[in-house]
Amino acid sequence: MLREPKPISHWSGINDSQAALACFSTEEYLLEPQSQIKDAFASIQANNCDFAVVPFENSTYGTVVFTLDLLVDRELRGPDLLVCGEFYLPVHHCLIGHASKPCSTNLSNDHTWDDSNQMQANSNPKRSSHTMKDLQHISTIYSHPAAFGQCEQFLSLHLKGVEKQEVSSTSRAAQLVAEEGANSRSAAVSSSLAADIHGLELLAQSIQDRDDNSTRFFILKNGKSNPQGLAPSSSSPHQPSSYPDKGAAEKWKTLISFTLPQQPSGTLADALQVFKNHGLNLTSINSRPSLEHTWHYVFLIEVQGRREESDDDDGGVMNQALRELDTKTTGGWKWLGSWRESSTGTI
Question: Cβ-count burial of 249 within 10 angstroms (0-12 exposed, 13-18 middle, 19+ buried)?
């Protein structure tokens, strides 16, 4: 008897689809693209899917603000959402569109593009040689803002002054160029997969500023309806499992949010000192406006370690630190999930 596939929600971008496919087997899960990141969050909260895959940060461009705001959840639209996994996806951008003529210029593997738009010697031996077709006919470039940010050096050097139009995703950018037809003077910063899907040519490959460009995705679940569910681990993809026994040797991360009083001074330093006192390493810190009043913020911190959901035997060092944090914050803290640390995060 065949089991009905479990739904997995993800943003409709090409990279998001690749991340979802890498984490979840299509034999067991039905991937459901969403037009916006907030739709993936809403799908989890409404129990319309088992997991959701959303972008959290890029190694070149930084944190995805849309995802941060949804995790802060000022309007309490996702009170049951928890992060239960992470996945790192290498991201290589291409300029795709319709070539004007067959001439090409070789991009040497000994050079890259710097911020001053000057060619400089490249010390990275991993960079390979690519060909770049003539781009003089390009008058408009479509892409997502994050993709533009990851390819600033190439665009500044080879397409300076060309109009940039921001769209909802890199896949949508490719679709728009394809819809304009073979005589289009537009191009898209997207992927080689998008070029194949939409019948476009690769005008330039690997145009991202850094060869090690990658995006980290969070895997979300509903903590009420799926309390024991974990996303696939990096060592055994496609196989979600339950929480291991307490004290397991795996490395974990925990995400929490909190607000602080603006007076007295040093409240943020005092809150962060709690984790140092308990020997816990902070791996990231972000902030977003709380909208409670001006210049007041919600802080989101990621800590190496796991929060135990039971306080038996003091609940472990993370639970002890969080109890101490209670004395430092204005409205307490919110646990946003604990998950196995992915080994692919090491570059």
Answer: exposed
